[in-house]
Amino acid sequence: MSTSENPTVRAEIASARSVVVKIGSSALTDIDSGLDLDRLDRLADALEARMAAGSDVIVVSSGAIGAGIAPLGLKRRPTDLATKQAAASVGQLALAHAWGTSFARHGRTVGQVLLTAHDISMRAQHANAQRTLDRLRSLGAVAVVNENDTVATDEIRFGDNDRLAALVAHLAGADALFLLSDVDGLYDGDPRKGDARLIPEVAGPADLDGVIAGSGGALGTGGMASKLSAARLAADAGVPVLLAAAADAGAALGDATVGTAFAARPTRMSARRFWVRHAAETRGRIVVDDGAAVAISRRKSLLPAGVLDAHGRFSAGDVVDVVDSGGAIRARGVIAYDVDEVGEMVGKSTGDLPPGLRRPVVHADDLVGV
Ligand SMILES: Nc1ncnc2c1ncn2[C@@H]1O[C@H](COP(=O)(O)OP(=O)(O)O)[C@@H](O)[C@H]1O
Ligand SMILES: N[C@@H](CCC(=O)OP(=O)(O)O)C(=O)O
């Protein structure tokens, strides 16, 4: 640990009562030989030790696609959706069985929980998933979560399990998130491409200046970029993150002295703002002029006069992206009007609009910067 580190972040992670532990494909599977059962046993041992020390644990396990490659006679990780889904359907069965067998050595029962992004974005499904996770926990069973790959489509996929794990940490009210991979922490550049320095702690976004987050291995999905965006998502939810090697699971889950520790935001984002920013599905896009882009960056409401264009099929109450005239997403927010009403505002100043269309398009309380 470097002397410049804030020891409280690692102490918080080490003593967290409720934790989510995500394990990447690259740490669990091999293209030729499939699942690494010894690795799973060692992980189950480390997870069991954490539970014996008093923590509740939820596992987010990747590896379904990786585990389906060898049984289907494929030579590499598939890239098209149908073959990925076929591999996941074969591999998920093996993966869940392997976790069940590893934990059974400790007399522990596991439950499989498969989720899609859509489930997390819809309040009813969200609440049901929350209840299932809670009840498994109170019954002493370990939830093993993965994306429901066989029904998720390219448009609605979480994209990677790092994000899924951060959303589950939020959903479950966890106190810490572990991202266990084949790399022993965050480096300032891709460690496979030469000299790179390990970054022991990320206190805030400024510590990521100059860091190059590269792609993943042959089995991983999102690479380091997806881990950084998951760490940001967790930080917004008030959850500190430890990124470490799965091979160091004992030390990571024991006293959190290895890997890279990411501090949470000093004040947790409200549940509503978190949902707008990270969980809700967007239904459209509002293009705004430069003045409005500056105003929303200063946490002001988006007013009708700043709207240049609207795209999508949204209704009042939906979440939309707010983009500037160059196409960059500046914020997400809950829109106060239907798409036709927003269309009527384009090119008009507030005084030219009927009274019913003069309220903010997105109120500042419902607008979250991206
Ligand atoms: N800046 C970086 N720091 C650490 N690892 C990096 C970085 N850039 C790219 N990587 C690569 O990201 C990989 C981990 O991502 P990925 O393969 O998606 O893992 P997982 O399967 O655990 O989700 C590592 O093998 C590493 O080589
Ligand atoms: N649901 C997919 C997860 C893919 C994924 O995100 O993998 P990884 O980048 O290794 O966490 C699977 O189980 O193969």
Give a description of the structure.
With 370 residues, the chain is of the alpha/beta class. It folds into two domains: 7-272, Carbamate kinase (3-Layer(aba) Sandwich), CATH 3.40.1160; 281-369, Roll (Archaeosine Trna-guanine Transglycosylase, Chain: A, domain 4). Helices cover 36% and strands 19% of the residues. The protein contains 13 helices and 15 strands. It has helices spanning 7-15, 25-28, 37-52, 64-69, 81-104, 117-121, 123-138, 161-171, 223-236, 249-254, 271-279, 290-297, 339-345, and strands at 18-23, 29-30, 34-35, 56-61, 110-115, 142-147, 176-181, 201-202, 241-245, 260-262, 282-288, 307-312, 319-323, 329-334, 367-369. The strands form three sheets. The chain has an eight-stranded mixed sheet, sandwiched between helices. A five-stranded mixed sheet has the order 12-11-13-14-15, with helices on both faces. A two-stranded antiparallel ribbon has the order 2-3. Strand 2 (29-30) and strand 3 (34-35) form a beta hairpin. Helix 3 packs across helix 5 and helix 8 (161-171) runs parallel beside helix 9 (223-236). It starts with 6 loop residues before the first helix and ends with a strand. Residues 24-26, 62-66, 88, 146-147, 149, 160-161, 216, 220-222 line the site of ligand VHF.
